[in-house]
Amino acid sequence: MADGRAPGRIRLGPADLLGDRDLLPVTVAGRQLILVRAGARIVAAERACPHEGADLARGRCVAGRLLCPRHRASFDLRDGSVSPGWSFRALRLFAIEAALDGLWLRTGAGFPGQAP
Ligand code: FES
User: Fold this and answer.
1) Of 29, 44, 85, 92, whose CB count within 10 A is highest?
2) Whole-angstrom distance, CA of residue 60 vs CA of residue 4
3) Distance from the CA of 74 to the center of ligand 1, in angstroms?
4) Are 46 and 91 spatial neighbours (Cβ–Cβ below 8 Å)?
5) Which domain of life is it from (predicted)?
6) What is the whole-number distance in angstroms between the Cα of residue 2 and the centre of ligand 1?
7) Which structural domains are found in the chain, ordered by start?
């Protein structure tokens, strides 16, 4: 789905890529992610739940949290932290820039092909 690259970022598509959807699965540099609308901002997250790998594209976004469809853990879309009572790692998030020329994913450390 990604259709352009610039140093440190990858263009995902037009600024209105999500349309009226709250969740959209995308493939970026071979990595399965989801775009999530969290209020006025958009964030990218890994698509597989860090618990047992459920497809988070089948989840829901409620009040700034992404709910996993399998066991109902939820993730804070500001930092990826999991809801109380769970002990697995946080959801990996990636910053999205909404610009006039489209949506761009910022590729920092930890993204495939980037320095660790
Ligand atoms: S697979 Fe997501 S909470 Fe268990």
Assistant:
1) 44
2) 28
3) 9
4) yes
5) Bacteria
6) 27
7) 4-106 (2.102.10.10)
Q: Is the dihedral of CA 57, 28, 21, 61 positive or negative?
A: positive
Tell which residue, 116, 111, 115, has the closest CA to residue 2: 111
pTM for this entry: 0.88
Which protein residues touch ligand 1 with a CB less than 6 Å away?
49, 51-52, 54, 68, 70-71, 73
pLDDT tens figures, 5-23: 667 899 999 999 999 999 9
pLDDT in tens, 36-66: 999 889 999 999 999 999 999 999 999 999 9
> How many CA within 13 A on the CB side of residue 96?
30
Structure tokens at 54: 């459920």
